[in-house]
Specification:
The structure holds two protein chains of two kinds. By secondary structure, chain A is mostly helical. Chain A is built from one helix and no strands. Chain B has 13 helices and no strands. Classes of the chains: A mainly alpha, B mainly alpha.
Amino acid sequence: MSLVVGTILWVVGGTALVGIVAWMVDRSTARQERQGIARKD
Amino acid sequence: MDLTHIHLLLNHFPTVGYIIGGGLFLLSLIARSDDLKRAGLVVLLGISLIAIPTYMSGNGAQDAIKSLPGVSKSMIETHEGAALVAFGFMEFTGVFAWLGLWQFRRLGRVPNWNLAVIVVLTLVSLGLMTRASNLGGEIRHAEIRADSSGQSQGTVTPEGALARTVGDFVTNTPWMWPTCETLHFVGLSLLVGVVFLVDLRVLGVMRGVSFAYLHRLLPWAALGFGLNVVTGILFFVGIPGQYTKNPTFYWKVALVMLAGANALYFTILDEPWSLGSGEDAPLTAKIAAGSAMLLWVGVMYCGSMLPFLGNSF
């Protein structure tokens, strides 16, 4: 794999992975916070 | 004092610290105590941070003893490989321990899935680190080797060449180093972007925003930090001498430790958490926010200046 193609693919892949994990944590937190509020109601 | 002293000073912390932190955490599950749970998670996170200089100073200690009579190169490499695997698991444990503390602050509890992950990772990390410690001890203590006559060169394990294999892959693969550099900056941008937002709010900017809103962004910063630890370790394993012989790098690691400890203040304590919309933060929170900004600027300065200070690049 050449320097340019390899770098672009792995940087995009690595950044996307971090973004997906962070997004999943955020969605999960939002869901649990909503459930917590609903339980209180 | 040099890296050998630092390695000898720190190398018992990961094993003993994980016994204490893991013990507190397991006890908290049995006793159903939230305070014990938080204490255990703080210890696990702190030890995961201390594991960074513990692992890195090992390379300096290696340079100091590798030429001494009776010291086996293969035993050093076996210890290095085992330590790298244990260190990786410890950092994963630290990430989930931090997430548990953050979840506790936000949700009032740690979800069951994360409790299970932390228990498993803690036990695996402890086992791996105990083994790495034992292999490290065997380097200079013939009396604890399987063959205590001293004739043996110690236990040779499959991961003996692991650190060198990873290091060679990082330095010999054309796209690996530039990829790690780019991801290191992506991680830095995530981390500093979120941390500065939080710190500026505490210092009085954007007073209409409550701290709890910004607190929700902290996992993005933690992921940025995690990305930087992974890529930073890959740089280090690639060319260890470039870092172990550079005092600017020692400063960078020390500042990262302090900044990591500072981040706990904003993750778990009540004082910043209770900062509502339109409210002014107390002085201690402002001091913590100001020092966090200085620490992270210091980390960035030391990181950027590595090729220019210390003559090791």
